[in-house]
Amino acid sequence: MAEPLGPLPADCWQQIFANDRPVAVEIGPGRGEFLLASARGDPERNFFAIEHSMSRTHEVVERLARAGVANARVIAGDASCLIELFPPASVAAFHVLFPDPWWKRRHQKRRLWTPRFVAALRCALSHSGTVQLITDVADYFDLAQHCLAGDPELELVAVDHPTVIQTSFARKAVARGDALHRSVHRRR
Q1: Which are the catalytic amino acids?
Q2: Does any domain span residue 4?
Q3: Which pTM was predicted?
Q4: Which residues contact residue 11 at a Cβ distance below 8 angstroms, ignoring those fewer than 6 apart?
Q5: 144 belongs to a structural domain
Q6: 3-state percent breakdown (helix, strand, coil) of the chain, nearest 5
Q7: Which long-range contacts (CB under 8 A, 24 or more apart) does 75-79 make?
Q8: What domain range includes position 43?
Q9: Residue-level pLDDT at 128
Q10: Lowest mean pLDDT among 80-84, 106-110, 149-153
């Protein structure tokens, strides 16, 4: 029987990126549009993405390589498990764009936004680090806000309805006429 993984070493980001730049983590990069644009637009920051789908992970890795982006990495895995292994206070920002709402009642146990998930995000966040959520599902946005508001070490700093986000999910939602919901929380 395999032993469970312990926490990652405090210098894990230095080992992964070979520098000490701040790290932003995207959960569920999909096709990698946001990851690629963010990494290109902010070369002084490192970007790490966690994608559940192995085939999507390979697709994003190839896309980053073709674009010559050196400050982004992507790994296949379960974000809710992996984040619990991150060193405390080591992540400058988390981006969760269009998480799967798991509509069916029997699948709701797979939902990302739980008090445990929020606690793991907060633990990994550096002082004044942020968590950005964007979704087109109002009920799921409300559920996430309830979980985020339940953590006294996080404070809401922004809520709005963005009209332009460069992902295929955002373009489809806007084309359907759906409102996008965005929040940003900061670690106190």
Answers
A1: 100
A2: no
A3: 0.91
A4: none
A5: yes
A6: 40, 25, 35
A7: 75/48, 75/49, 75/50, 75/51, 76/50, 76/51, 76/52, 77/50, 77/51, 77/52, 78/50, 78/52, 79/27, 79/28, 79/50, 79/52, 79/112
A8: 12-187
A9: 94
A10: 106-110
